[in-house]
Amino acid sequence: MPSQKALIRRPSPRLAEGLVTHLERTPVDTGLALRQWEAYAATLNRHGWETFEAAPADDCPDSVFVEDAVVVFRNVALIARPGAESRRGETAGAEEAVARLGCSVNWVWEPGTLEGGDVLKVGDTLYVGRGGRTNAEGVRQLRAVFEPLGARVVAVPVASALHLKSAVTALPDGTVLGYEPLVDSASLFPRFLPVPEEAGAHVVLLGGSRLLMAASAPKSADLLADLGFDPVLVDISEFEKLEGCVTCLSVRLRELYA
């Protein structure tokens, strides 16, 4: 089986200037952030993922959060149009990278806005957060690109968190994990499991029962371990200061390489 690939992007030297929406700004140690990013990439490698770097975007402080720049479904990539204007310079490098990986490429056009952190894939269902950085026209354009490929698109209101995936992600069986104070519409998900920590709502499916999670969510990791999963913890504290999480530091391309 060919290796699954994960698209990543090296942190900008200006990382500490990244946007903060729902948190108070605290100092970011850029040296530590780089070491944490390298450890994150190494963890993906150890668990069967080949990492592939998008070209650095050093003038874009938030560019390490590469998930926001592109959404991939099957072999089709939709290049985002970030709701934060300062982030729009991030998309060109992501576009070039997914094209090199064999994706066909589509784009979100003005007046649509869409950020990849608002798109949660559960099987063929795409839950799309609307209300923060992604607007109704962005949802419409995503639907137009992916529904012909067999996707079911469900718009989900987002008001309490930066992105939909700041509040929820999903387990391999489709159960949606969420930190309830940030989840505006849990009833939209057929199966919902609340977790005790905000960072506990963020998991990356590494394969099998393995879940990549932030070290800042030990209680949630214990809960998931009790349910038979194998949490793999990484320290991403410097990215969490900028509302980042384990999902937004990579784009997993399992559809192409599984």
Quick summary:
By secondary structure, this protein is of the alpha/beta class. The chain is 21% helix and 24% strand. The model has no long low-confidence stretch (mean pLDDT 96).
Describe the structure.
The chain is an alpha/beta fold. The protein has a single domain (4-257), classed as 5-stranded Propeller (L-arginine/glycine Amidinotransferase, Chain A), CATH 3.75.10. Helices cover 21% and strands 24% of the residues. It contains 6 helices and 15 strands. The strands form 5 sheets. The protein has a 3-stranded mixed β-sheet with strand order 2-1-15. The protein has a 3-stranded mixed β-sheet with strand order 3-4-5, with helices on both faces. A 3-stranded mixed β-sheet has the order 6-7-8, covered by helices on one side. A hairpin with a 2-residue loop joins strand 12 and strand 13 (210-214). The chain starts with a strand and ends with a helix.
